[in-house]
């Protein structure tokens, strides 16, 4: 953090002020971020301190196979500072979508950041990397995505995989995955990657991850799948305001029934909230206006790995890999059950045919005892 | 071997009381787990005029499922323990092949009881070798079901440490969606196993007449005296334990 070259850059507070925000706005922002990160009240000061004194971190934001919904989500996060300063001004040295520069100029800017701030910059990756056909499916400036990624990752202080594409491949990695779209953690062996899955991830969550890296100078605490625990430790189901209907056993049966109008639980129409780890139920979307379940649609599970292949959107039961697209666990089970029934019935018949003599003898023996007892 | 002159039967204590208790407790909780599991996977529509706040249908079903799963798991652990301290019919070597004799008996059971060929009869007082070997896979299914189940449960339980021992599981399966499906499919193994198991108990009772069905009640099986003598005489009858 205390790299002499980096110190020349203005601090976050200076940037905020230059942008016309008051100190009050700044403090509000710090408090908000601390809350999202799940920090205790006393840690707000730490966030304030960090953003006041630390120079802004240079950021390289790469776009590969993606739809830019992550960037869209980020610039629409609820607090204006997130959009205006963090993204606009955190010195986003390279971002195909948002930078003013283009062509050689842009490539130059990226190269400069990579050499000047070696070991200091944050690398944000949006999108998966196609590895099929030597990577021709996504090339920028004559280089394949993989080449660009590896170069940029070399000197990165932290690597963040924005969204489901970079975290787990998302739709382009769904079967049959024609371009061999690959999430970045599989390509950057030995480098820690913060995964921020979601399609897109929530803007506040994205801002929170960056603020954490800036404040503490290290990666946030990650769970088993590499996601920041602060945002991905709870299932959508556990924070859902419709949860009491779930526990009561009151469910929407179809989208136009009375139960849907009453706002009952969407479990039976395929809500993936019980299997999805995200902060949607708490943070919500679009300045905290709503989230899918609140709008009457079940959760997709968009932040879960492989959700395109695993889940049927409007059913609880999901396709079972290896048994074809229509096979659910129950269908596989029922077929096996029928086969078992037939096999056992056949065996029972065969027993009476083949072991006839044995059974006859047992019967004879038993009957004889019965006769003798009568005497 | 059976002749019209009724043979004398020897009473053999096969299933000790702890094994019998384990067996029926296991049967009970598995039935409960299957029933509640199906309900959790696809809940019935229950119409009630009561306020939502006064209802807790799914909550109760889930509670029963979780309580039953604790009993299932610790009962399973107890059975593993008993595989080391129980009698020879309960011993772990009944389930894991450790000798060539084990495989020879599997083949013999396969020929006589499945292909219905005629051949040299074998005497299996406890489990026959094929059944024992299949029980080994059943125990593996118990393990899979416990791990996937508590893996799903870990993140929704709070407080005590035990379920947290399984918090690494979802990551191994790439998330809860797939994990849930593995748990659901494995349940079908339990259903199929139960069918086979009950059928075969009836089958053995029917063709052998040694009290197969009632043995899990009182622990006794009855072996014809002449068969018993013959097996006692065989010096090289490898011990089953």
Defining traits:
heterodimer; A: alpha/beta; Rossmann fold; Cytochrome-c3 Hydrogenase, Chain A, domain 2; two-stranded antiparallel ribbon; 8% strand; B: 241 residues; mainly alpha; Fumarate Reductase Cytochrome B subunit; two-stranded antiparallel sheet; 9 helices; 2 strands; 63% helix; elongated
Strand fraction band of chain A?
5-15%
Task: Assign an overall shape of chain B.
Answer: elongated
| Helical amount of chain B | 55-70%
* Low-confidence regions of chain A: 1-7
Order of helices and strands of chain A: HHHHEHHEHEEEEHEHEEHHHHHHHH
In round numbers, the mean pLDDT of chain B is 88
In short:
The complex is a heterodimer of chains A (375) and B (241). Chain A has 375 residues and is an alpha/beta fold.
Folded structure, characterized:
The complex is a heterodimer of chains A (375) and B (241). Chain A is of the alpha/beta class and 375 residues long. Residues 1-7 of chain A have low confidence and may be disordered. Chain A has helices at 4-7, 12-18, 23-36, 44-53, 69-75, 80-89, 103-116, 145-154, 163-168, 203-216, 229-232, 243-248, 258-262, 280-283, 307-310, 329-354, 356-374; strands at residues 59-63, 92-95, 122-126, 129-130, 139-140, 143-144, 158-162, 181-182, 193-196. In chain A, helix 3 packs across helix 4 (44-53), helix 4 (44-53) packs across helix 10 and helix 5 crosses helix 10 (203-216). Chain A has a five-stranded parallel β-sheet with strand order 2-1-3-7-9, with helices on both faces. Chain A has a two-stranded antiparallel sheet with strand order 4-8. Chain A is built from 17 helices and nine strands. The radius of gyration of chain A is 29 Å and the shape is elongated. With 241 residues, chain B is mostly helical. Chain B has a single domain (17-208), classed as Transmembrane di-heme cytochromes, Chain C (Fumarate Reductase Cytochrome B subunit), CATH 1.20.950. Chain B contains nine helices and two strands. Chain B starts with 8 loop residues before the first strand and ends in an 8-residue tail after the last helix. The mean pLDDT of chain B is 88. Chains A and B meet through helix 12, helix 16 and helix 17 of A and helix 2, helix 6 and helix 7 of B.
